[in-house]
Every structure is written in structure tokens, then in C-alpha cells.
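User: Just a sanity check before I run the rest of the batch. Below are the C-alpha cells for the first item. I only need the designed sequence back.
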């Protein structure tokens, strides 16, 4: 993942992928954009990159609310995410592992252009029209 992030920093061209979290009723919980240095990625790369960006966003903010796919350990549910009592470091690798395991055990579904992807090596072509939706089914707890 570190090599991937370095490639992204050095690469002048990036491909923006819009991602939504939705409930099974279709309610949009979050809407975010993740940048990639290539126009085709795997499901695994998408999940790991998304989680890494969420942890980085948390590190760079002043409040204790973590907004992300995976609930960090020792955090409580709040309206727009998870509240961490004392601002602390979140283990990116642990969060990514929990997210990957959750994907593989149907903790959430991943829809790309209204088609469910089920394997970590499934490919996603990033275009301006690519629609990515994470359907959250159960609370996911990570690091």
C-alpha cells in the first residue's frame, strides 16, 4: 500500500472515483471521492485505498469523529460516524484487514454500475460515469 500511495503522489494524472455508502433502503450515508493513479483497479485496491484515505482524513482533523467504512475499536456510534473518546492513532493495516474480511464474509456488498462484485480480484474501470456503492449490512469493527 505504501508503494501504491507513493506512485499516486508522483503521478500527475489521477482518476477520481466517486463512492457512496448506502443503506439497503437506498439512503445515502456518505459520498466521497478517492483518487487512483491508474484507470483500472481491483476490488481489493479500492477497499484498501478507501480505508487508508478515511484514516488519513481522521488524522488531519481536529475532532474525535471518525467517518468511515469500519468502526474503530473502542469507538461509539454517533450520527455521522464513530466517536473516539480520546483522539488516537488508528491502525490502517488493521482497518484494511477488517474491511477485506467483511467484504469476503458479506458484511457489506459492493455494487459497481449496479452490478455486485464478489471477488477481491474483480476489476473496476474508472470513468466519469462509474458508480460505486457500498451497501452496509452490519456494524464493522476494526483497529
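Assistant: Here's the designed sequence for the first item:
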Amino acid at each position: 500500500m505504501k508503494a501504491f500511495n507513493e506512485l499516486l503522489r508522483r503521478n500527475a494524472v489521477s482518476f477520481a472515483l466517486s463512492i457512496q455508502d448506502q443503506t439497503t433502503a437506498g439512503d445515502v450515508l456518505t459520498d466521497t471521492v478517492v483518487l487512483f493513479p491508474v484507470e483500472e483497479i481491483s476490488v481489493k485496491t479500492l477497499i484498501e485505498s478507501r480505508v487508508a484515505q478515511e484514516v488519513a482524513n481522521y488524522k488531519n482533523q481536529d475532532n474525535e469523529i471518525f467517518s468511515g467504512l469500519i468502526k474503530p475499536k473502542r469507538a461509539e456510534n454517533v450520527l455521522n460516524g464513530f466517536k473516539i473518546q480520546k483522539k488516537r492513532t488508528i491502525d490502517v493495516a488493521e482497518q484494511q484487514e477488517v474491511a477485506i474480511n467483511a467484504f469476503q464474509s458479506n458484511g457489506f456488498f459492493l455494487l459497481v454500475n449496479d452490478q455486485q462484485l464478489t471477488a477481491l480480484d474483480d476489476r473496476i474501470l474508472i470513468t466519469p460515469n462509474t458508480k460505486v456503492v457500498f451497501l452496509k449490512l452490519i456494524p464493522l469493527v476494526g483497529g
